[in-house]
Automatic annotation (TrEMBL):
<feature type="transmembrane region" description="Helical">
    <location>
        <begin position="354"/>
        <end position="377"/>
    </location>
</feature>
<dbReference type="InterPro" id="IPR011701">
    <property type="entry name" value="MFS"/>
</dbReference>
<feature type="domain" description="Major facilitator superfamily (MFS) profile">
    <location>
        <begin position="226"/>
        <end position="410"/>
    </location>
</feature>
<dbReference type="InterPro" id="IPR036259">
    <property type="entry name" value="MFS_trans_sf"/>
</dbReference>
<dbReference type="InterPro" id="IPR020846">
    <property type="entry name" value="MFS_dom"/>
</dbReference>
<feature type="transmembrane region" description="Helical">
    <location>
        <begin position="383"/>
        <end position="405"/>
    </location>
</feature>
<feature type="transmembrane region" description="Helical">
    <location>
        <begin position="122"/>
        <end position="144"/>
    </location>
</feature>
<keyword id="KW-1133">Transmembrane helix</keyword>
<protein>
    <submittedName>
        <fullName>MFS transporter, CP family, cyanate transporter</fullName>
    </submittedName>
</protein>
<feature type="transmembrane region" description="Helical">
    <location>
        <begin position="156"/>
        <end position="177"/>
    </location>
</feature>
<feature type="transmembrane region" description="Helical">
    <location>
        <begin position="95"/>
        <end position="116"/>
    </location>
</feature>
<feature type="region of interest" description="Disordered">
    <location>
        <begin position="1"/>
        <end position="24"/>
    </location>
</feature>
<feature type="transmembrane region" description="Helical">
    <location>
        <begin position="64"/>
        <end position="83"/>
    </location>
</feature>
<feature type="transmembrane region" description="Helical">
    <location>
        <begin position="319"/>
        <end position="342"/>
    </location>
</feature>
<feature type="compositionally biased region" description="Low complexity">
    <location>
        <begin position="1"/>
        <end position="10"/>
    </location>
</feature>
<feature type="transmembrane region" description="Helical">
    <location>
        <begin position="295"/>
        <end position="313"/>
    </location>
</feature>
<feature type="transmembrane region" description="Helical">
    <location>
        <begin position="263"/>
        <end position="283"/>
    </location>
</feature>
Amino acid sequence: MSAAPQTTRPAPTPAPAAPSATVRRGTRHPALVVVAILLTAASLRPLLTAVGPLTTDIQHATGLPGSVVGLLTTIPLAVFALASSQVNRLARRHGIEAVLVGGMLVLTAGGLLRWLPGAVPLFAGTTLLAFGLVVGNVLLPGIVRRDFPHRVGAMTSLYTTVMSVGAGVAAGAAVPLAHDAGLGWRGTLNVWVVVAVLALVAWLPLMRERHVPDASAAARPRRLWTSPLAWQVTVFFGLHSMLFYVCSAWLPSMLGARGLSPATAGTLGAAYMIAGAVASLVVPVVANRRPDQRMVVAVIVAGELVGALGVLVAGGPLLVASVTLLGLAGGAGFALSFLLFAVRAGDGQTAAQLSGMAQGVGYALSATGPLLFGLLHDALGGWTGPIVGLVVIPLVVATVGFGAARAAHV
């Protein structure tokens, strides 16, 4: 009996520019590609993170219960889980740039639909724009790996930081824009569509290039689903995505149970997101300097574990430091996940396919997090048990993270 084929191979050091999975004909415009990537990244979070601070306004305007309004956040995660693995089929057929243009069009249409009165356009528009968001989520790592093979770390730092900053700015500005600026909750939710329109304009001239599909590309998704390394990257991303959405939904309530005032708990919740953005700027650059990122994973896991333990038992300044450390480590893990999509792949097409697999499964995993932690709170009658759950997540991350970070390619 012959030996089973290996699913990974050692990564070269230093990694040469990998061949693209498509033959590109035309002239690339690196500066325009960078602008298009950053505008796309800036459009991927605000239309979602602006919802949370406006939940009460939406309830009063629509008469819907909070559980139904909460679907405005849950629906996009479900779409991400269902559609992520399909985006690359469109990209192989039509080209990455063309699909990104289509994604920004769908995102814009969904945002405009939410401007119409009534609950049905609100939920239909949210569902539609989620399909546009998933296109950018999946394809940006492939674009970076294909067009910037020697600057993967720097480009990943830039666009993941823009994603994090966009999320924080949209959440922090939601109430002032709605109340003080007079935009109302509908205008505030959808003002960020302007960024998607700008991204669309940036991708249009890049779409003119012709792409000849690589005949071997169609077989790669099947191989990815049988690769232990691909699954390790997938679970690593899913757990960090779960940690982000659990903390976004419940961290202020957890801190309130520790005796903090609602205002202070809300401020620390914002500090968690800001710390994550800072980590996103630094970690991919540092991690990309070596083909093996296991030391970075060790630091991330230690930071998450200490931060979660601090949220459980610390008080005063130590509690503030613990929340900040948890945000730094969680943001670092999230940013490292996107770097791994690129550096664990041998070319841009494989990076996009790995991104699609990891985000499809990962967002399905992360979507369960806020629900499970809420159910755990209800079952135990308090937040101590769920905070212990925050301690457990880094321990699980460690079981897959060191495999995902080893110097190998899927």
